[in-house]
């Protein structure tokens, strides 16, 4: 019975997985999963999956093979069909919410976008410990008792003693028959990574643009966390000046005034210098803007900072330009012109929510 339940559960998980893959673009563009994240799980609203359940009828209704009816009559004829009946005050059907682990979600994202696995650079700094089951022993906690090996040992003992009767097979383990799983603790190296998010929060970056950044960063986080054992996330906002903030402030702040992108790049470079040695960390800066910089001189400063201080130290620098009716959109053209042959810098134009999935593929599709 337990094995059949496990098989049914696996089949249901496969159905859920298929539904998510089928509707992945909708989930990404509408941000349905963002904000539903728990500690290790994400709740996903799935339509058109019916969970089998018992339905209890009213008393005196009778049951199968009881009450009025003739052979061959369809069961449940008296139940109202969809579209029938009067208006009422009871709630209708709701979408089923299924919980999925972040690892499962990342795997679905990787399969659907065909993202390559990332090969971490730098040495592995942190060493954790992992328990690994390696064999069987006659002592141990009851939680680790190996039932099959226990009964096998009991059968051996009874056959050797001549007490086993094949015509009335009965195996009764005694204390000496019990067998337990044994384990050893192995060191488990962990690769470190840091994501440094930067965003223009000047007046031209409105709520819609920030929502696009929020959705895209959720999926970037999901994938990178599946590739590394340890992840730091840092957040920088800038208009004419840059400052580090927490995640909530990053997505909610809206400033006004001019834009000096170099202020964010200077803070990013200083952060790497002070806290993230490239020999020990895999570094991923992501910058989102509408492409409207203060001046040509500041763009020259940005190019110099990228070439000399940032790109040589990071796995990949990603620039996403969110379309805005107020931004000039020039900055992505300047980056493409200066870094056309540099594999460490990736640019992506995000013209709306429908472009998020292509932008994620642009940023993560190189496996760096």
What's the quick description here?
The chain has 368 residues and is an alpha/beta fold. It contains 10 helices and 10 strands.
According to CATH, the homologous superfamily of the largest domain is von Willebrand factor, type A domain
Return the CATH topology of the largest domain. Answer: Rossmann fold
Helical fraction: 25-40%
Strand content: 15-25%
The termini sit apart by 46 Å
Give the number of domains. Answer: 3
Low-confidence stretches: 47-51, 90-94
> Helix and strand string, N-terminal first?
HHEEHEHEEHEEHHEHEHEH
Helix segment count? 10
**CATH architecture label name of the largest domain:** 3-Layer(aba) Sandwich
- What is the typical, i.e. mean, pLDDT? 78
Indicate the CATH class of the largest domain. Alpha Beta
Strand order of the largest sheet: 7-6-5-8-9-10
Which key features would you list for this structure?
single chain; 368 residues; alpha/beta; Rossmann fold; 6-stranded mixed sheet; 21% strand
Task: Please provide a written account of the structure.
The chain has 368 residues and is an alpha/beta fold. The chain folds into three domains: 1-50 and 95-114, no CATH class; 127-187, no CATH class; 191-364, Rossmann fold. Helices cover 35% and strands 21% of the residues. It is built from ten helices and ten strands. The protein has a six-stranded mixed sheet with strand order 7-6-5-8-9-10, with helices on both faces. A two-stranded antiparallel ribbon has the order 1-2. A two-stranded antiparallel ribbon has the order 3-4. Strand 8 (282-289), helix 8 and strand 9 form a beta-alpha-beta unit. Helix 5 (207-227) runs parallel beside helix 10 (356-364). The longest helix has 21 residues, at 2-22. It starts with a helix and ends with a helix. The model is unreliable at 47-51 and 90-94 (pLDDT under 50).
């Amino acid at each position: 019975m337990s094995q059949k339940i496990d098989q049914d559960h696996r089949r249901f998980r496969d159905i859920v997985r298929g539904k998510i893959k089928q509707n992945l673009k909708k989930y990404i563009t509408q941000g349905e999963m963002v904000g539903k994240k728990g500690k290790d799980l994400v709740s996903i609203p799935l339509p058109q999956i019916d969970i089998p359940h018992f339905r209890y009828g009213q008393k005196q209704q009778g049951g199968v093979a009881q009450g009025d009816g003739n052979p061959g009559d369809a069961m449940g004829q008296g139940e109202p069909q969809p579209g029938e009946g009067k208006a009422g005050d009871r709630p209708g059907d709701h979408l089923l919410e299924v919980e999925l682990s972040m690892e499962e979600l990342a795997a679905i994202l990787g399969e659907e976008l065909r993202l390559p696995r990332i090969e971490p650079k730098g040495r592995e700094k942190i060493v954790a410990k992992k328990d690994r089951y390696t064999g069987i022993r006659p002592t141990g906690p009851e939680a680790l008792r190996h039932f099959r090996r226990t009964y096998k040992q009991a059968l051996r003992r009874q056959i050797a003693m001549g007490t086993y009767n094949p015509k009335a097979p009965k195996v009764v383990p005694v204390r000496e028959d019990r067998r337990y799983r044994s384990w050893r603790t192995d060191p488990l190296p962990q690769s470190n990574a840091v994501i440094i998010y930067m965003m223009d929060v000047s007046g031209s970056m409105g709520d819609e643009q920030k929502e696009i950044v929020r959705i895209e960063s959720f999926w970037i986080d999901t994938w990178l966390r599946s590739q590394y054992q340890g992840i730091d996330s840092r957040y920088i906002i800038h208009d004419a000046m840059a400052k580090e903030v927490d995640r909530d402030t990053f997505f909610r702040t809206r400033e006004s005034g001019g834009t000096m992108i170099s202020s964010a790049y200077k803070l990013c470079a200083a952060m790497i210098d002070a806290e993230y040695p490239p020999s020990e960390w895999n570094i991923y800066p992501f910058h989102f803007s509408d492409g409207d910089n203060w001046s040509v001189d500041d763009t020259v400063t940005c190019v110099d900072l990228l070439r000399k201080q940032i790109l040589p130290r990071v796995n990949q620098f990603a620039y996403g330009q969110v379309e805005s009716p107020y931004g000039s959109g020039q900055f992505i053209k300047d980056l493409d012109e200066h870094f056309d042959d540099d594999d460490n810098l990736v640019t992506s134009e995000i013209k709306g929510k429908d472009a998020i999935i292509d932008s994620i593929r642009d940023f993560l599709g190189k496996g760096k």
